[in-house]
Amino acid sequence: MIDPLITLVISVSLALLFFMAARHKMSSPRHFQAQLAAYELLPVPVLPLASKLLPAAEMAIVFLILIPYTRAFAAFLAVLLLSAYALGMAINLLRGRNNIDCGCGGQPQALSYWLLLRNAVLVAGASMLMVPASDRTMVWGDTLLLVLMTAVLAMIYLLVEQLVRNNSVLTNRSSSNG
Fold it and tell me: Which tens digits make up the pLDDT trace of 13-51?
């Protein structure tokens, strides 16, 4: 059993992450479809459907992960989705195709092994939500800790994303100069 505060912090953090990812994909469906096509993993006729279903699944996770009764199921879906994304990235990295935009949302980001590590950490976090939480009563201080811990995790996530982006730019510059 894990502390209910930890469960809430992970749930809210993953809900924010999936919301931002789904919002990005839904705001530009043709662009997302092109990003999916760049992976060269799905048959072309399937791409329009996949480009609609993936953000819909992410948005479903946003809501289901915040409800205690559906949290474990949402966590399972999150693990499947994050693992599928990581598998797609790994296949393309092994093919030597690291110049593809990951399609994660926000600023373009080339595939890298850092993104695989990021997804592994996210899968580990989502997996923790499948473990039952203790029945400890939450107190008002837990709410403050929930907000602070979620904010800290969000800042760490954004910092790591920017470092990975910077590393990608530096790697591309050094390979084009050499």
Answer: 999 999 999 999 999 999 999 999 999 999 999 999 999
Its pTM surpasses 0.70: yes
| Strand, coil or helix: 133 | strand
Residue pair 59/18 in contact (Cβ under 8 Å)? The answer is yes
Q: Residue 111 is encoded by which pair of tokens?
A: 């595939």
| CA-CA-CA-CA torsion sign (83, 84, 85, 89) | positive
Number of domains present in the structure of the chain: 1
Contacts (Cβ under 8 Å, ≥6 apart) of 116: 86, 89, 90, 93
Phi-psi region of 134 (alpha: psi -120 to 50; beta: other; left: phi over 0): beta
Query: Which structural domain, as residue segments, surrounds residue 84?
Result: 4-177
Q: In angstroms, rounded to a whole number, what is the distance separating the alpha carbons of residues 5 and 8?
A: 5
Q: Which two tokens stand for residue 113?
A: 């092994």
The amino acid occupying position 79 is V
Q: Which of 47, 162, 177 is nearest to 107 (CA)?
A: 162
Q: What is the CA radius of gyration of the chain?
A: 17
